[in-house]
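Researcher: Please predict.
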Amino acid sequence: MPNYLGVDYGTKRIGLAWADELGIALPIGAIAGVEYSSHLEELRKEIEQRDIDDLVVGYPLHMDGKVGKRAKEVDLFIDCLEKTFSLPVHRIDERLTSLAVEEAIGKKAKTKKGKESGKVDAAAACLILKDFLSRGSREGMLSFS
């Protein structure tokens, strides 16, 4: 089984989670800031350190399943990931992921300090990765023509 890096893309932080050959997803933190070049350098470090084979990115569809503005931003981010790292990138529907994380973590996640720490973002990345792993490597992936 390959090593996966789960990614919850956001404009303020990028949440990260990791799963190895055992297939257990674990939150590993968040990359703060809005500077693309620093995001890519931080991602490169994680990819190299954890010997990542595939990236799994949360894809924010609207509740009706349509692609909106946020999903188009994620498409641009994914294009950048593919060009920079030459790794397979899998899109996973992330509707309600952040809400589920905030409910699971509780009110602490809603405080400013909790959000700044990146715990919600890392936990959301973990849920995205768990969803991907539970479906099997290719089953349930979003595909766009």
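Model: The beta strands are 4-8, 13-19, 26-32, 54-59, 89-93.
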